[in-house]
Amino acid sequence: MFDTQIYVQRREHLKQQLSSGLLLFPGNNESPMNYPDNAYRFRQDSSFLYYFGLDFPGLAAVMDLDTGSETIYGDDLTVDEVVWMGPQPTMRERCAKVGVQDVLPANKFADVVQEAAAKGREVHFLPQYRGDTIILLADILGLAPKMLNGSASQAFIRAVVLQRSVKVPEEVAEIEIALDITHKMHIYAMKMTTPGVVEQEIAGALEGIALTRGNGVPYPVIFSVHGETLHNHYHGNLMREGDIVLNDSGASSPLHYAGDITRTIPVSGKFTQRQKEIYEIVFDAMETSIAQIKPGMKFRDVHLHAGKVICNGLKSLGLMQGDTEAAIAAGAHALFMPHGLGHMIGLDVHDMEVLGEDIVGYDEQTQRSEQFGLAYLRLAKELQPGFELTVEPGIYFIAELIDMWQGENKHGEFINYEAVQKYRGFGGIRIEENVLVTDSGQRILGKPIPKTIADVQALCSS
What we know:
Number of helices: 16
Low-confidence stretches: none
Strand order of the largest sheet: 6-5-4-1-7
Structural class: alpha+beta
Radius of gyration: 24 Å
CATH superfamily of the largest domain: Creatinase/methionine aminopeptidase superfamily
């Protein structure tokens, strides 16, 4: 965990953003695979980790804004539990490491919250995503479980998002640790990808690297010759000569900060001419988009810039046509890049998304579009120093989407469907970096992973 004072300062800063009542932080519990004693790998709630730093199940915390008190609720192990789990520090010893002195048994959490609610005090909580926690809080507060998140505290959400969005140097260092592991994963994939290998052999090894050096993967590995399927978690394809495989994978650091990098690999070690042409467009979109990032720049404008680069590149290949500005305004380029250019990243790979994507990525001056493609942009608002985000342009040939748009003659003035149909089966190309917004511009985080055509081919052929 971080130094004690980091957690103390985080909580003090949060207290200054809200006026009265209780702030609730339910931690995560074990999640059974098929019976209680056979659980999935434990992952603590990110907001609990951020403010209280304790990475084990069975905890909850309360910050009382009126008295200034901070209490963690949890139980010491019984002798029976020690038999199976070994000796552990006491709750008081563990809580002292994050600057909390008040410790009570886990079953007192509900009593304290119910007593406060009965007195008419404000009880603030964040949106919840695990069923057991939703049921617990709903029962404590006398709400129907399906109504719980609708009663989450907007003031609490906004205060947490404001604070967690700006990464301090200690967090940036932890993210660099995650990216160092991620670097090893991608180098391995480039070296070991070859015709005749099943995707699962590489995908499984990537997860193994993340587990041996960090806290596993922060999201399921995407490693597929069908890169046109944006979140493709199937790994059963045999890689063949002439294929390209999209590798979107990252590692979690020991403190759970996420890395999220994408590279596209030629299975045979060399890109075909057609693959090179598409790759160069995506590469240009990524490089020029990163160069635009600076404080005060709206990320939506960076996204639209990437769209223009992609549109102009596809025009040069005869796949798009007409006026670029008009095509972007109409959303015609979204046939080829239907996702947003990037998202915030930190303790969560889509950082704080559970708190509300519109709160994390938008504000009163920047409203979400309803246009296909642009509507999927997770981060659009003005950038600030300390933001960490992904930049991940791509070009994809999604047969079902192409056929639907062509059948409707959608944006026919901008798309040459006859030429596009010749790219059926091409797959998809995406290149992704993690970028820190600095006081004067930006910095790409992590060790360089080959991304030019020449460097990728050199490593793949080594």
